[in-house]
Amino acid sequence: MTTKLKPQHSAVPSGRVFLFVCIILIAMNLRAPFTAMAPLLEMIEKNLGLDTAAAGVIMAIPLFAFMIFSPFVPQLARRFGLELSLLYTIILIALGIIIRSYGNVPLLYMGTAIVGIGIAAGNVILPSLIKLKFPHKIPLITSSYVLMMGVTAAIYSPLVIPLAQFDNLGWRFASGVFIIIPIIAILLWAPQVRHRSREKAQKSIQHGLSPIWRFRLAWQVTLFFGCNSLLFYAMISWLPAIFNQIGLSPEKSATLHGVLQLASAIPGLILVPIINRTKDQRGIAILVTSLNFIGLLGLILLPSGATFWTIIIGLGSGGGFILALSFIGLRTQSSDKATSLSSMSQTLGYLTAGIGTLALGSLADFYDNWQPVLIVCMGLCVTQGTLGIFAGRSVQIKE
Predict the structure, then answer these.
(1) Contact at 8 Å (CB) between 274 and 284?
(2) Contacts (Cβ under 8 Å, ≥6 apart) of 99
(3) Residue 232 lies in a domain
């Protein structure tokens, strides 16, 4: 059952600046350690003797980690509190980066999985923390941290190849560089664990635990999130290979990989005032899915304009990601419901992304061409736009 959405207030709670900065810093760890591995895949293949499928597993492991671990995050958050749970999250990401950069294939896979578990926890907890701490500025805070996720990833993607080539240090060094940001985040976030807000967060999460799975609106938000995740991570994983097929150099492909992520961050600057002023986001959902469709069609019909089409796809997928995360807070009435919806949407969403990304890679191998993958993704855009018409309505899940 749903209830009509009340307008949000515009005032930002005072005394939250440092908390906001910490949220941004945590968000900087929730994409780059994963996505910037894509430009290194060919180098990893050659160094470790892997085939394309085995290298592709490196990009799929975090998605399956998101799917497997996300259902357990609400219980952990209720037990340890949001602040302590986020601290564990950053520590896991740092530990995973160290392990995967150590050397052999088992450690690479193990470390990648640990990074994925840490990112999964952060992705689930942050929307709940924002719902609790910034209930009247959900789109603003959500867009801000998604913006920094994209900017950080966009900076790292074009840097990893030069870092790996510098003095022949290799992919292990380029991968290990990501440890810098989690260390800073751990040092700044650790004092938050002592704050009384942890108790408040726990009480809020424990209040009213009706099953989120039984609400139709929850499924609409979840499937919208799943479509966007599959499209975004398919592009993150395979776009460098697509660019290589059309004749771009590895360095150019890595640069466009960064352009994609930078473009995905830009909607955070554009959508904030729009979402804040509208209770109904159906038009925005149609807009972002249309951008994805146009960008994919452009890559098929005019691949010479790869840079332009990459920007369009980045704008669409980034806007869809912000909208999907905003739905988690906007379509719920409390922090506990936001945590449950966040867990549900990310569990099934990343399951879809993980299976879909591997399936699209197999499809490309079968046809020895990436064009069928782009066509399937265009169909996905149509599905996502249809779901957005339902998820974007001005309603909330009833307590």
Answers:
(1) yes
(2) 107, 110, 111, 114
(3) yes
CATH number, position 240: 1.20.1250.20
Residue 4 falls inside a structural domain? no
Radius of gyration of the chain (CA): 20
- Residue 12 in any domain: the answer is no
Nearest one of 237, 218, 245 to 355, comparing CA atoms: 237
Coil/strand/helix, residue 3: strand
Whole-prediction pTM value?
A: 0.73
Q: Is residue 241 part of a domain?
A: yes
Instruction: Tell me which residue of 102, 95, 141, 148 sits closest to 118, measured CA to CA.
Output: 95
Q: Which two tokens stand for residue 109?
A: 């896979």
C-alpha distance from residue 180 to each of 18, 115, 170, 185 (Å):
20, 14, 18, 9
Can you tell me whether residue 395 is helix, strand or coil? Answer: strand
Mean pLDDT for the chain? Answer: 83
Tokens 């999985």 -> residue: 113
- Of 320, 221, 316, 323, which Cα lies nearest the Cα of 276? 323
The tally of domains found in the chain comes to: 1
Backbone angles phi, psi at 90, to 5 degrees: -65, -40
Amino acid at residue number 370: W
Report how far residue 389's alpha carbon sits from residue 306's, in angstroms, rounded to the nearest whole number.
30
pLDDT in tens, 92-115: 999 999 999 887 889 999 999 999
Closest C-alpha to 228, from 345, 337, 147, 308: 345
Mean pLDDT of 232-261: 83
Residue with the two structure tokens 């009509």: 4
**120-124, 186-190, 334-338: the lowest-pLDDT one:** 334-338
Please give the residue range of the domain that contains residue 321.
17-397
Strand-pairing partners, residue 4, are 395
- The pLDDT of residue 210 is 52
